[in-house]
Amino acid sequence: MQKTYAIVDNDPLVLAVMRNVLSKLLPSEYVCKWCVKSGVQALKYCQVTKTTPDYILIDMSMKDMSGVEVIRAIREKNNNIILIGMTSYDCRSYASSVAQVGGQAMVAKDNFKGLAEALQYCDNQKVYGCRCVRDVAYDFATPQESFIRLSKSRSRSVLPPQELKIMDLLSKGCTTNQIAAQLGLMPNTINTHIHRIYKKLHVSNRVQAISAFAAMQNREQTSNLQYFNNSLQNHPNPSQETDNAC
């Protein structure tokens, strides 16, 4: 079965060399779908199913967008593509950010063998991580898990912590005065927060706000359940993998 990958780097020479070397290091079923010099171009290709690859190698230092921004933008829309960050600098500078925004690996750009290894290793829902750095544990995750993380982050960030607490109390039937007493605030302050919540949730009353809040929580629970079910199907007998040197 053919597997497609793409390369994003603003240096045309690097693109040409990397494409050539990887074609020799990877098994024949791995085919380079495209190479582009900008993050914007990569995002455009990922918006169309026909041009969306299975894997993307993304340089961290580009002119139009940083590699971290590209990875995040792709992951927010896609829960399947395997995203591998690469850099000419110290991997420590980017590994944590790449993990947080949805990447599955961080590899030194001149380590062609490591790039090929990472690309193959990430098959079957495995995470390659950052093997150049031995003394730090980065929180890399699978595409599906990363997608859920970012989805939860976006939905939760609609409301700041205090307003989330207010909505939680409203959904439990608390009155404005009861919420004010519990949070140590004036009722007028609570009302101000409630009206801000209405605007953020695009509703006009408490009933609608509670319904929207419940729907938001429902989406999160559904996403987590889907991920759990997928994990059971993909990993019926999980086994611990042994890291190899970068």
Description of the molecule:
This protein is an alpha/beta fold and 246 residues long. It folds into two domains: 153 residues, Response regulator (Rossmann fold); 73 residues, Orthogonal Bundle (Arc Repressor Mutant, subunit A). The chain is 52% helix and 11% strand. The chain has ten helices and five strands, in the order βαβαβαβαβαααααα. It has a five-stranded parallel β-sheet with strand order 2-1-3-4-5, sandwiched between helices. α3 packs across α6, α7 crosses α10 and α9 packs across α10. It is elongated, with a radius of gyration of 22 Å. The two termini are 27 Å apart. The C terminus is likely disordered.
CATH-level-4 superfamily name of the largest domain: Response regulator
Text of the CATH class of the largest domain: Alpha Beta
Q: Widest sheet: strand order? A: 2-1-3-4-5
Radius of gyration equals 22 Å
CATH architecture descriptor text of the largest domain: 3-Layer(aba) Sandwich
Q: Write down the overall mean pLDDT.
A: 84
Q: Report the structural category.
A: alpha/beta
Number of strands: 5
Q: Could you give the distance between the termini?
A: 27 Å
Low-confidence runs of at least 5 consecutive residues: 223-246
Quick one: biggest sheet?
5 strands, parallel
Categorize the overall geometry. elongated
The figure for the number of domains is 2
CATH topology-level fold name of the largest domain: Rossmann fold
> Helical amount among residues, as a percent range?
40-55%
What's the SSE pattern? EHEHEHEHEHHHHHH
Q: How large is the count of helical segments? A: 10
What is the strand content?
Answer: 5-15%
Domain Response regulatory: 4-124
Modified residues (4-aspartylphosphate): 59
Keywords: DNA-binding, Phosphoprotein
Pfam family, one: GerE
